[in-house]
Target: Alpha-N-arabinofuranosidase
Amino acid sequence: MGIFILLMMGNIMSLQANTTFTNPVLSDGADPWVVHHSDGYYYYTQTTASNITLWRTTDLSDLENAEQKVVWMPKPNSVNSEHVWAPELHYLDGRWYIYFAASAGDMTRQRMYVLQSENSDPFSHYDYPTATQSGKIADTSDKWAIDGTIFEFEGKRYFIWSGWEGDTNEQQRLYIARMATPWQLTGERVEISRPEFAWEQIGTPQVNEAPQVLFNPKGQAFIVYSASGSWTDDYCLGLLLFNGGDPMVAANWRKHPTPVFSKNEAADVYGPGHNGFFTDNHGQAWLIYHTAKFKGAGWAREIHMQPFGWQVNGLPAFGRAIGSQVQQARPN
Model:
């Protein structure tokens, strides 16, 4: 009888291990981005600083063992050969595009760049679109820029990123510009957010960065962004609500007065930020983000994820950051 009970307990524990996971899903990483493709795979990328790497898996909770492929390597001493940050993968007009920030050694010269896939396979080779100079994508001001992402609204496409107002690192703000093509912006940029609340102003310089577009089930658009210094324990997520109208009108974006996701000291989670979103096969929405590995860890970071829902007023309900002690059901 004792042996039978032990066998049953072992089976239950094995079943739980196959259906649940715990954070972190990657023990080392920052700036996660996920696409759930129609081929059944999740495609994941993050900052490597030296190249663009994609992970491919059917189980995001097992990223440590996912297939990896370097899809682009910069040429030595090129304008974007170093500090390759925060790549994002987007499917636009029948091709895959990867947007990333980089420079040639001097981080004060970070700019946004774009790569184009050779075909419709996200795991194919990538290179600069032929109409660009080394893949550079910039508005008319051509100022310091990182963390570019895509916003599509009423058949038009916009680029949103974090940048400097001038040529010195005083404050990172969020900007938007119209897109003429996946590799070309048109017209001037418009500022839609700057650090203004105390929770956005921790650390010097003050930071708004990593904008991510999110739509609720009713179609209302939001930008979830990261606020305060990414090297601090107080890095967190803020929210801009789009009120409709022209996205290029700053007044049409309204800032939520409090952070929507922040550190959870009880769970030993500090500095959660620079997130992405994905939806699993059951339609469950997920938040993936990086956190400090421990209190005071600075830029030593790991990757966490957790499901989220919606409040009755339409705002996202991310809940508290989930630490390493909680068993969660795997994404379907």
Summary: The chain is about 5% helix and 45% strand. The chain has one domain: 27-329. Confidence is low (pLDDT under 50) at residues 4-9, 11-16.
